[in-house]
Amino acid sequence: MRVDTHLHAYADAAEGLHDLTAYPIVEYGEKDDVVFAGVAGTVDDALRALADADVDYAALLGSYELPALPHPEGGARHWPVPPAHPDHVDGLVAYNRWLCDVGAAHPQLLPFVTANPAVMTSAQSGAHLAEAFGDWGGRGLKLHPIAIRTYPDDPGLIGVYEACADARAPIVFHSGPDLRGYGWSDPAAFAAVAAAHPRLMMILAHLGGASWRAVTALAEAQRGIFFDLSEIVMWIGATKGPTAEQVVGLIREIGVERITMGSDFPWYSPGATADVVEGLPGLGRGERDAILGDNAARILRLV
Asked: Which of 53, 106, 136, 198 could cross-link 100 (Cys pair, CB 3.0–4.6 Å)?
């Protein structure tokens, strides 16, 4: 079985093209031969990409971001209570409903809904997610701390973590540095959440991104955290990226059983990402199969 644990799709091409241009990839430095997917990222684009790569399932990841990406007032570390932007509740709920409807129509797309503590209280988020996991078919959750402008230990996310733990729904977190150095998604920022919520299944995306050197300390301290290889393997050899040998070294230190394959489509394609994983030096057939799908199948209860 092949499983992509990190895929995005959009309701229309314009929305996808906006995100592709609004989030340029700069953290890995320079590399001339990065292979991008070259599509807008509609649902149909995603389905074709999975079929072309012989990928059986993909986690369809959501992210609900506020216009202009506001920060908490006064430089606060976390969003206040009550939430600063409650007028977006209906939009957030509708977006999660859309993700689940897409998953219902296309069973190979596993809907990972999202949350935002600037929009809902901890209790509201918990109740909403319990419904999404229980009645709508939600299979997991995605959080992008940089995009929602808060740290993973925001108290407004406690209800989110409790709902995910109760539903055995994994959370995919964006991980990596932000341009201004706030550290919202630095690997170390997730240690407190993992310690406080031991039932939570956490997958840190991008193997830490350009903060890849910091993931082994976190992985050793919190043995329950998983990591995906999305994006970072496409930047192997970049000026701030790892070499292929360093990626394999990280996989060995963390443990192959804790690594999954993700594409970060539509930035990159599942097929091209799987090809890079297949070519990583020194991995055996069983290890490659574990990364390409067997580990994710276990996490997502697909087998």
From this structure: 136
Cα separations in angstroms, 90 against 42, 72, 84, 142, 163: 23, 21, 15, 18, 19
Contact present, 87 and 140 (Cβ < 8 Å) = no
Q: How many CA atoms does the CB half-sphere of 150 hold within 13 Å? A: 23
Question: Taking the CA of residue 70 as centre, how many other CA atoms within 13 Å lie in the half-sphere pointing to its CB?
Answer: 14
User: What are 296's two structure tokens?
Assistant: 């994710």
Q: How far is CA 26 from CA 156, 235, 268, 283, in A?
A: 30, 10, 15, 29
In angstroms, what CA-CA distances link 293 with 151, 226, 299? 30, 13, 10
Those residues whose C-beta lies under 8 Å from the C-beta of residue 275, and which sit 6 or more positions away, are none
Q: Which residue is associated with the tokens 């920022």?
A: 189
Annotated domain spans of the chain: 3-299
Q: Specify the pTM.
A: 0.98
Distance CA 160, CA 115 (A): 7
Please tell me the predicted confidence (pLDDT) of residue 23.
85
Q: Where are the beta strands (DSSP E) in the chain?
A: 3-7, 57-61, 109-114, 140-143, 171-173, 202-204, 226-228, 259-260
Task: Report residue 115 as tokens.
Answer: 């949350």
* pLDDT tens digits along 253-287: 999 999 999 999 999 999 999 999 999 999 999 99
Local structure of residue 10 (DSSP, 8 states): B
CATH 3.20.20.140 fits 3-299, yes or no: yes
